[in-house]
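Forwarding the complex inputs:
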Amino acid sequence: MKLGILYSGGKDSSLALMKAQKYHDVVCLITVVSENKESFMFHTPNIDITLLQSQSMGIPLVRVVSKGEKEIELSDLKKAIQEAVQRFKIEGVVSGAVRSTYQASRVQRICHELDLWCFNPLWLLDQVELLYELLEKGIHAIISGVFAEPLDESFLGKEIDKEMIVKLSKQQNPAGEGGEIETTVLDAPIFKKRIMITDSKIDYARFAGTFSILDAKLEDK
Amino acid sequence: MILIINVCKDKLSEMEFVRPLAMLIEDHVIVHYSRVKLVDRKAAEKIIIAGTALKDFDYLEGKFSWLKKTRRPVLGICAGAQVIAKEFGLKLEDFALIGPQKVEVVKENRLAEGVFNAYFLNTKIVAGCEPLAMSNGKPCLFRIAEKEIYGCLFHPEVLNENIILNFIQ
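Prediction (whole assembly, two chains):
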């Protein structure tokens, strides 16, 4: 089956992509770029990195910019999926939803309206198990956003390795299911080239901060 | 041992609808509905028929006639509830419920009580059953008369794990 994946460039959508590829042909990445920092659905630091990720994986990107107003952004997502259906003949959509019934049910509704299959291969996966699976699968992700105490500036830009998983495991939501962390994937077995960050900046105050990639390039592995 | 019957047509759906149940139940065996044998059912203390993707209806063509003969308690979740309804001559009607919805228990039972939120992912409801719980004016939890066979149209593994634990206890 030809599938499109809702791709934010983070750990969850990258892991979901690898799981989906085991059984199906993932023919496009679908990214909604939200201009609203408060968006429950789509806001992700470094969303523009999906352009490089798409290039590295050799999977085309369907990219839609949304003002991120509640519910209107859902029609923007629907438009993006419709574009993927038209351009790539997808029959279904994959998401990296783990726990959020808010996000999952909205994607399910859109797929139902468009008569598409909807797959959520990480659904209800244990969060610590999810983090270790990243390592097992060779997914290299960095923390690109922290949004809850006690996660501080020291986490920003750091790779999720064993040591980091031990630290994150102490949190209520180790994999950031409550929006505590956001991540950016720089390399994975599905990447033909790894992403090299050449310029970045950190913005941080009172347990909320982002690691923004200002410039990056692909380099041979 | 709890037998979890997988009704998914697609392997990718199993991660979403079968694995979460398996995570909740320590002693379990998973068998696809197309391969369930008498020996599997006899070895089980109880049986759970899992759900599947919204676009998947292949299970409705499956052979579940054993449901009428089994003495094992059965819990059908979403697609599994539809299978039970079909086998016991209840009518399936088109009615989509997707996402968290309020559920109210209307008849005392050993699985659930009170009012709670539950996660729905279904496009069909069961008519003509005696409801144990209702949502949006429709039955969402029912029991086949005089049997320990339950149909649950929402997914208790998402927000109401206690329903599954109450069933397997």
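The radius of gyration of chain B is 14 Å.
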